[in-house]
Amino acid sequence: MSTPIRNTAAMTATTTSPAPTRRRSKKPIGGWRWAGRGILAFLLLFTALPMVWMVITSLKTQLAALQYPPQWWPNEVTFENYVQLLSPNNAVGHEFLQYFWNSFYVSILSTILGVVIAVPAAYAFSRFRFPGRQALFFSVLLRNMFPAVVFLMPLFLMMKWLGLVNTHGSLILTYLTFGLPLSIWLLKGFYDNIPIQLEQAARIDGATRFQAFFHIVMPLSSPGIIATAIYAFIMAWNEYVYALTFLNSKDKLTLPVGLQRFFSEYATNWPGLMAASFIMSVPVVVLFLVLQKYFVRALTEGAVKS
Amino acid sequence: MAEVVLNEVVKTYGDIYAVNHVSLTVADGEFVALVGPSGCGKTTTLSLIAGLNEISGGEIHIGGRLVNDLDPKDRDIAMVFQNYALYPNKTVFKNLAFPLQMRKLAKAEIERKVLSAAKVLDITHLLERKPRELSGGQQQRVALGRALVRDPRVFLMDEPLSNLDAKLRVQMRTELKRFHQDLEATVVYVTHDQLEAVTMADKMAVMHGGFLQQYDSPKNVFDNPVNMFVASFVGSPAMSLVPLEAVSHGSDVALRSPEGWELPLSPQNARKALGATSNQVVLGARHSTVKLHSAQTPGAVPGVVYTVEPTGDITFVQVFLGTSVVIVSLDPSVTVHPDQKVWIEFDQDKIHLFDGATELALAAV
Architecture of domain B4-233 in CATH? Predict the structure, then answer.
């Protein structure tokens, strides 16, 4: 059934060239193709099953979660865990919402700051020729050549020296140093692909250099900006080691750290932990679903000349 | 509209002169073509006039005002780019409106001007489309519309036709010429295609290696090229150039080839040849001034046919005279075969003589 449908789709997609009358080959699907499908199916299960199990567990009671053999589908579906986490009036919910807010605040701020810095930096690397440009550009990547843990102690000492330990500022600064290199590289690629004549045309049409950038270049690079923003947000949202090291007062913790401390304190409440994990993954998933088309475009932009 | 004056304009990149002391005046309402091969400095010259590149030396005046240090936006010019540079995220209407918005015109005024420009160029039905939904010819019109929507003092055009297919290029060429005549606009037009320059321009500036070689009307450039470069660049097919040696026989002068044949020169051409700095003289002849004989003829020199290229109404024949190629145009009814031995007759009144050492045209003394 699927073959004729695919055929018509291919025909409509290439209306410009006279469609060659070559038909899709009817030869039987080879063993390699089946092997590929098998591997893909396995990978899908491998990544999806834990998430499915997370959701199922979050709908169980504590007792049901610990049963062996496990209940594949809870006999008694309960939303109790979610209600508890999301109501600010009880202690658990109060703490959880505090962590959630902390994570959100840190992630959003480092994302916004990251974009604000990366956009002009990438533009400058792409458009201007200044002494030390190459060296500077590669030094941006220097940070990514080492594992993140290598910087843990030096950064901690620097934060201590700056008086930023146990503040969200320390995390925002750190996340910026992680996110910026990739953001700058990605955006520079974007700006390289925008013909310089567009800006020249704008400047001749009466725009200043900044107006040309703001009115013409910025809108064209928005997929790149959105992609780097998503990347920076997700990275900050998921980060664990630095948050664990830099923060110590309970009311400042971010979700990844908070989740862990929170649930070891109350004995491991698996359904509660799974519900919290699920809530934690919601913003990222939503962000991705809404903006994924930009993300894909950004990563493939310039791969094929349009 | 305004006059554009370039005075000893220089643009350097490090030690390299991209534009080397170029001086020329584009009169008000004149259509001037900057022509030359790639890398000759023509596009750089244009972007210096536009203000997109910083000038290294000399002066540029537009309408009597020194613009060396003015931003592009303050020079009151419009430019059409080779790739059109239409704003891809804006509709055609917004593309045309952009220059007016930047000049802070009232909304009603903008709409009036955009609509009238669109009407002139016959693109009214395209106003709500995005550039990528247009054909090459339509994009070209929109680019032109964006240039003329705000009555600039000078139009700069950077190879605006080179992205079009051959047929559309010829059509747009006539439209551009008409557009210039109707608007009496000052136009500086860059092209590598000498045919575009010859057909459209009032004057053409031939550039090579950053230097301005010749600046004159297309007819004068075609009839009296100042040097071998201009001679070989303007005209299609190019002028044939044959390096020879001047020899004197008493009061007569002839040009001798390495193969041994001699071409006696008329008294006027003899005086020209004697004015050369050495005895190395290059003979130049356009295809239409050369005759081909299939049998030995007095005054004709021997050669061998290399290729025959019929184009329909004219057949071009390439003939080897020793190691140089001479192109001859023939009526298609004449049959010639490759490797056939032929005799070439030059028209003494129409040949060009160049100094073999300096490559400059030899003038009658």
Answer: 3-Layer(aba) Sandwich (3.40)
